[in-house]
Amino acid sequence: xxxxxxxxxxxxxxxxxxxxxxxxxxxxxxxxxxxxxxxxxxxxxxxxxxxxxxxxxxxxxxxxxxxxxxxxxxxxxxxxxxxxxxxxxxxxxxxxxxxxxxxxxxxxxxxxxxxxxxxxxxxxxxxxxxxxxxxxxxxxxxxxxxxxxxxxxxxxxxxxxxxxxxxxxxxxxxxxxxxxxxxxxxxxxxxxxxxxxxxxxxxxxxxxxxxxxxxxxxxxxxxxxxxxxxxxxxxxxxxxxxxxxxxxxxxxxxxxxxxxxxxxxxxxxxxxxxxxxxxxxxxxxxxxxxxxxxxxxxxxxxxxxxxxxxxxxxxxxxxxxxxxxxxxxxxxxxxxxxxxxxxxxxxxxxxxxxxxx
Amino acid sequence: xxxxxxxxxxxxxxxxxxxxxxxxxxxxxxxxxxxxxxxxxxxxxxxxxxxxxxxxxxxxxxxxxxxxxxxxxxxxxxxxxxxxxxxxxxxxxxxxxxxxxxxxxxxxxxxxxxxxxxxxxxxxxxxxxxxxxxxxxxxxxxxxxxxxxxxxxxxxxxxxxxxxxxxxxxxxxxxxxxxxxxxxxxxxxxxxxxxxxxxxxxxxxxxxxxxxxxxxxxxxxxxxxxxxxxxxxxxxxxxxxxxxxxxxxxxxxxxxxxxxxxxxxxxxxxxxxxxxxxxxxxxxxxxxxxxxxxxxxxxxxxxxxxxxxxxxxxxxxxxxxxxxxxxxxxxxxxxxxxxxxxxxxxxxxxxxxxxxxxxxxxxxxxxxxxxxxxxxxxxxxxxxxxxxxxxxxxxxxxxxxxxxxxxxxxxxxxxxxxxxxxxxxxxxxxxxxxxxxxxxxxxxxxxxxxxxxxxxxxxxxxxxxxxxxxxxx
Lengths: 357, 473
Fold this sequence. Notes:
Oligomer: heterodimer
Mean pLDDT of chain A: 93
Structural class of chain B: mainly alpha
Number of strands of chain B: 0
Strand content of chain A: 5-15%
Distance between the termini of chain B: 16 Å
Shape of chain A: globular
Structural class of chain A: alpha/beta
């Protein structure tokens, strides 16, 4: 039996590069030092990246023996305004922070409703424009929790080892992000949305505090206000098909939230809805897109859950919101303390009255 | 496991250390094999079983084929390998597609057929390693090569992590002999290996993901008729993205293997400087095109059975090549267009290709630009999620209907234009050159600066560990 002679084994040609590799490392080190210095000069302090893996890690704590804890869900207002350390000081136990910026918490509620290991208490932030739109900027975090591969888990663990030491390692200072923010002339007829900038710093367990720059840099603050208000059109002035779509989505989110709440309540989980303070542009837009009587009131009425609206409680008013929506760190400490007291008081009152608690 | 992930960085450091530790060659190969399984299992552990199945079947089949002399029995053995490998591929990759088409066929016949739910996860890299193991059995069947003497060498050939999930699709004769004798990278190989890894990751993280993907997504994600400039820029962005993504993966794979002392063949040779489609396929995904040539086109008769049959063989090969990329008719059309262009080029070359005119610089540049233009037309079908999107794009790209919607902001226009012009210039400059020759010719300080800047851009781009496009194939 014959076998044709095999072709010679390929050997890859290799250039002689001398010490180029070491010199390249030197170039890299110099550039990295310069870059890190520039980012720190922009006021950035190293913090965690608030990655999908970090959220998934916190979410898994419910399945790993902490299912009876207080859990915070919501969007960025809950993330920045609810300070875990303050709550822990008052309650003797640190809550879990599951709020996701730019994301309606309804999907998180549904996940918790389907998870029997969650038996604790749930505070859900209702930012009307997001909550009832179903918009989910960070849907990938929920998928990560559901489908995380071993390599993703490991990669996140390695990443979180270095995140608190490197200021440049921040999504908002990635090279393509900076490149796309360069002032170039606008193109005719193209709607160009300014993307949301760095808003807060995140700690290991996702406790987050608004970035100081919003407090001391007026231009940055104004930029944020411009971003929040850009391209906004009152609901009534939108084309009828768009209006219809928004109203449909609003009803759908409301129905989903009610169903998830009832499921949680049936298991003995206390669900508390909170509308945190907003002002400026949001004072107009939030109520326009989701009028209280058609959304918030219906949610509370249908679920019988406790609802804390900032307009109803003095303790929830009078906080400084640099860009109309989020509290500075100190204000958030004060707010958390106030809302903790309020929650305890209202729950006790409901219990005394024989309400749903 | 993705090359562009921190997990891989740690994994590779451990593998390199073990490979350079004072172990026997057999132990080192076993380490590489275990490492390769970990590399694959890190994504979805149960799918390692498929890898084992493919390995065991082709090992056994090839050994029996080698000893067997009866032709009918040899054919049957080969059929076992082909059925098992294509069966796995068919089940995981084409099951849903076949059901959908069957349902449409039934509908045409007036029969209301509701197929079962077919939500099956596609095992990553299955199209690559099934082709690689099938090539092994076919080579033994065709007596082009003897089977591997060691099961360890064969298992490592199937599983070798640098090229396991997205190629290059390596032939047994290219890799198995390299496992026979101890191999550790020399200092020069290690340095060049790291340089290639840097270049590959730069292509993927900075260019494909960082600079081009947004424009391509915005344009191909639009459901409206677009302005021709936007449609063209979106297509050019995808054209650059898919090259930088896939060539980036191959270059990284070659660099990773070289750091371990192994040589993988080139998979790309600056394809956007191709003059004609046959030249393009000698430069684009070389390991697949040569696989299709050797195991499909030539067995079909190649160009040995007359002109008409040659054209038919070209079309069949390229359409199946298209289908290899994904279970969708848009991929088949992509393949058919390439087949058609190859056939047309063959006919034109036979009738008008004589003389020296076409060998001059300017006509060749024109032909290269024409090739690039046509390749971009084919990419529309490759990238579009459905025919409606593809036709809409082609319509506006070819008719220059200026009423379409503009969706790309100025910064994307600038990025795509800049990257495309730079990429075409580099491809044209490198058309007849080799990277290692250029690296040798460059002053070392300049080489180091380019390398250092690429590393810096990779790090500050902070890639999101997004999967390589070809993983889905």
